Amino acid sequence: MQESMDNKVTVNDSETSNTSSMSSSSSSSSSSSTPKKRKSKKKHSKAAKKHKREHKTFRQRVQTPSEIVCRYRSILKTLPKTKTMTKAFQKHGIDRNTVVCTSALGELAIAAPEVYEETLAKRSTGETVLAFAKRCEAAIQKDEELKEKIEIMKAKGTLLPMRRNKPV
Q1: Which of 138, 142, 69 lies closest to 105 in space, CA to CA?
Q2: Domain tally, the chain
Q3: Is 138 inside any structural domain?
Q4: What is the mean pLDDT of residues 144-152?
Q5: Which of 22, 24, 55, 85 is deepest in the core (most CB within 10 A)?
Q6: What range defines the domain where residue 113 resides?
């Protein structure tokens, strides 16, 4: 009987020695991997990527009718390259609604320069650009022949194909 107990003891001793050697080996392997960490790559956010695409972020305020006509012509030049009006407006840093409100100036200056010059001569010093654009729209609406000419030019692509819901 004593022998069997001794066997148990030896078995227990060997098990304990095995487990202790395993724990020491596992602790030594984990200690070697702990100080070395791999560097992970920084992921760029979508906002940072989007910011790179936008080259022109400033906007210039247009204050005179001649500047509006110049802006209208530059958008007209950009349109074939960008394929869509939305992209052309984004490239120039301008809102579509702003172009719609002032497009009568550009249309009148390109389609009928003499009528534009007459309207410009009657402009008072305190008149806003938007009020002047409304007067240009009224001049277009008054003359049916000019109105038809502008529609034909829009169809050909020599003017921006803007549609206004409410004529002034």
Answers
A1: 69
A2: 1
A3: yes
A4: 95
A5: 85
A6: 63-156
Q: Are 111 and 137 in contact (CB under 8 A)?
A: no
Tell me which residue of 89, 69, 68, 67 sits closest to 79, measured CA to CA. Answer: 89
Q: How far apart are CA 110 and CA 154, in angstroms?
A: 11
Torsion sign, CA atoms 29, 30, 32, 38: positive
Whether 152 is covered by a domain: the verdict is yes
* Cβ-contact 34, 74 below 8 angstroms: no
Residue 11 lies in a domain: no
Task: Count Cβ atoms below 10 Å from residue 72 Cβ, excluding itself.
Answer: 23
The burial of 77, by beta-carbon neighbours within 10 Å (0-12 exposed, 13-18 middle, 19 or more buried), is given as exposed
Query: pLDDT (tens digit, 9 = 90+) per residue, 76-125?
Result: 999 999 999 999 999 999 999 999 999 999 999 999 999 999 999 999 98
Among the listed residues 135, 129, 139, the one whose alpha carbon sits nearest the alpha carbon of residue 65: 129
Rounded distance, CA 49 to CA 42, Å?
13
| Contacts (Cβ under 8 Å, ≥6 apart) of 132 | 65, 105, 119, 123
How long, in residues, is the chain?
168
Torsion of CA 106, 109, 110, 113, to 10 degrees: 170
Q: What letter does residue 125 receive in the DSSP assignment?
A: T
Q: What would the pLDDT profile of 7-49 be if each residue is shown by its tens digit? A: 555 455 444 445 444 544 444 445 555 667 777 777 766 655 5
